[in-house]
Specification:
The chain is an alpha+beta fold. It is built from five helices and two strands; from the N terminus they run αααββαα.
Length: 125
């Protein structure tokens, strides 16, 4: 796991009371694990402000107990029959979870480091 942010970084971004009743050290460790899992490119040293801001948002979510939460199923497809004896069927995506506002904001900040660096076009001959 890479250490992108520290408790001091999050304190500087969000103020000293950002963790509420949560454990700030654990929240920052969880945020660093989340960032490590999401970032697919080499990050320059020093860590860019966008990544630190994203980490602060994720740490705040983690301090509230909402980062690594239970999973629930998300509907992948729905089928409805309009004939007599109407029936409905749903297919669920296994292991999907709802994203918090902080997670969505962090993902938006991380776009340059999440996207693949280039696209390769293959041509059959």
């Amino acid at each position: 796991m890479t250490d992108f942010i520290t408790v001091a970084d999050v304190d500087a971004q969000l103020g000293p009371d950002w963790a509420g009743t949560g454990d700030p050290v654990l929240a920052v460790a969880m945020a660093n694990a989340w960032l490590t899992a999401k970032i697919k490119r080499l990050v320059p040293d020093p860590v860019p402000a966008e990544i630190k801001a994203a980490g602060a948002q994720v740490a705040k979510v983690a301090a509230g107990g909402n980062l690594y939460k239970d999973t629930k199923k998300e509907v992948q497809s729905t089928t409805v029959s309009a004939q007599a004896g109407t029936s409905v069927s749903k297919t669920y995506v296994a292991g999907s979870t709802d994203l918090t506002q902080g997670e969505n904001f962090a993902l938006a900040l991380l776009v340059p480091w999440i996207k693949r660096p280039s696209t390769f076009m293959l041509k059959r001959t």
